[in-house]
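Researcher: I'm preparing a figure for a lab meeting and need a structural model of a single chain. I don't have an experimental structure, so a prediction will have to do for now. The sequence is pasted below. Please return the structure as tokens so I can convert it later.
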Amino acid sequence: MRDRQSGVTLIGWLFLLTPLVIVIYAGVRLAPVYLNYMKVSRALEQTNSELKSGGANPDNIRATIDKHFEIDMVDYPQVKDFKITRDGAGWAVEAAYEDEAPLFANLSLHVTFDKVVHVGNAD
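Model: Understood. Here is the structure written out token by token.
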């Protein structure tokens, strides 16, 4: 009787691991984009806590966010791109922006973020 090979060959391993490597590589490329979003989100939450007691107006909100962006070294998005609208007794600050992370050659990953924080509302 012939002995049969058991296990996975080298070519089999290549086919099995290639998708996993691509997903891990995409995660590595997206990490800075999500870390930047976390800085933006934290700046908005800190702005909310600082201006919760009062004195919130669009100029103060933009100045406070800009201060936090300088501390955290956030270059994108810009504070001027944020949408600040009246929301009852307070203000709604919306940071809706898109970012890209290059993947391979001319392929890139496109990510859309949308964060809304209500500033100056009496809770």
